[in-house]
Amino acid sequence: MAKKEIPEESDEIDIDELMEEEVEEEVEEAPKAKAKPKKKSKAKPKAKPKAKAKPEIVELEDPMIVKKRVKRYIRTRENPMMVSKTIYSKLNDKLIAIVEEGCKRAEANKRKTLHAKDI
After folding, report:
1. Of the N and C termini of the chain, which has fewer Cβ atoms inside 10 Å?
2. Whether pLDDT at 79 is above 90
């Protein structure tokens, strides 16, 4: 009988071949996902776009000014002064009045944008 020669195993391992074999095994073992039948949806009538509602007039709860910056400005002037707590509410009221006056002027000029020239 003729003896089959068994090739000697080498210490070198080809990593690429091993990775390909592992990937092929994983692909074969992966379960196939079944395609779900699509459900027929009932067509809903499209709703008409809603008209934009005018925003409600809201009284401001928070001041429109930054107290810290006002205080810093007054204290760093050429003639620095102390700042009373009552100044902020009056300053806020004046600011609102100026903005309202500018808005009325813009509306009189048939614009919806408030510009510096309106103030």
Report:
1. N
2. yes
